[in-house]
Design goal:
Elements: E1 2-3, E2 12-17, E3 21-27, E4 30-35, E5 40-44, E6 48-51, E7 56-59, E8 63-69, E9 72-77, H1 86-96, E10 106-108, H2 111-124, H3 133-147, H4 155-168, H5 176-182, H6 187-198, H7 202-220, H8 225-231, H9 237-248, H10 252-256
Helix pairs in contact: 1-3, 2-3, 5-6, 8-9
Length: 257
């Protein structure tokens, strides 16, 4: 495997080519591959995906792959340099950002998504200056085309994304009102939907996730109680011990032994 993990350093790079790389390379940025008149092969380390003529595949950042075959339009997107608005950034990253599961490292665009994206990609390939107004605007439009249909799913999907966000941000301050705002819902509606989905309030769920993570760290690592408390988002060791004992009926030290 060849490592090629340098940031793009600009919003996008758009090219027309027949070969992106012969051997799998690791990339920090997202890649949109549009097969033109012939199919192209996208080879991961353990899987090969075929994009037929007219089909478009989006490969998320931190994926290791090569692209060969017929002519393709390829757009590399560096999400960190696109200056995505704060109110929109979590929705964008939940769809286009890195995924921990190898199963989710890419997705094929549906017909309507592909049609919108193909038009923008054609225009982007004619732009030479990534920071020109035209190029920047087209890159933003491409991100919108890739996300707008996927962010219009039912509320349960929003709630699932928020649950995933909680799972990966336990060390941070998590407030239900903030989480409701992140998925574009009023707090009363968010609270109702969350409770219906998980059978407990958002605040209770956050505590549940934190305690569960703490229990795993206690049993599988040698981290100090204070370090585990910080990693799981508790105010301090005392708060961690009180919460843990209330939820599980025993102290962290006793559970570790």
């Amino acid at each position: 495997m060849k490592d090629n993990i340098k940031e793009l350093g600009q919003p996008f790079v758009a090219v027309s080519c027949e070969k992106i790389s012969e051997e799998p390379s690791l990339r920090l940025y997202g890649m949109l591959v549009c097969a033109k008149k012939e199919k192209v092969q996208i080879a991961f380390e353990d899987e090969t995906v075929t994009a037929e003529a007219g089909e478009i595949c989006y490969i998320r950042p931190m994926s290791c792959y090569s692209v060969t075959g017929g002519e393709a339009l390829a757009v590399s997107l560096d999400l960190h340099t696109l200056e995505i608005p704060a109110a929109y950034i979590n929705k964008v990253y939940s769809i286009l950002g890195e995924k921990s599961s190898a199963v989710e490292r890419y997705f094929m665009l549906n017909e309507s998504e592909a049609q919108k994206a193909a038009e923008i990609v054609e225009k982007l390939c004619g732009v030479t200056e990534a920071y020109s107004y035209e190029g920047y605007l087209l890159a933003q439009q491409l991100v919108t085309a890739l996300t707008e249909e996927r962010t219009s799913e039912k509320n349960s999907s929003y709630i699932d994304r928020i649950s995933a966000y909680i799972d990966t941000h336990t060390a941070y301050q998590l407030e239900a009102v903030m989480l409701a705002r992140m998925c574009g819902m009023s707090y009363p509606n968010f609270a109702k939907r969350f409770s219906e989905r998980y059978g407990r309030s958002c605040k209770e769920h956050i505590t549940h996730v934190r305690v569960s993570k703490a229990q795993r760290l206690l049993k599988n690592t040698a981290l100090d109680i204070s370090d585990i408390a910080a990693e799981c988002g508790f105010f301090d060791s005392s708060h961690f011990i009180r919460t843990y004992k209330k939820k599980l009926g025993k102290t962290p030290n006793r559970d570790r032994k």
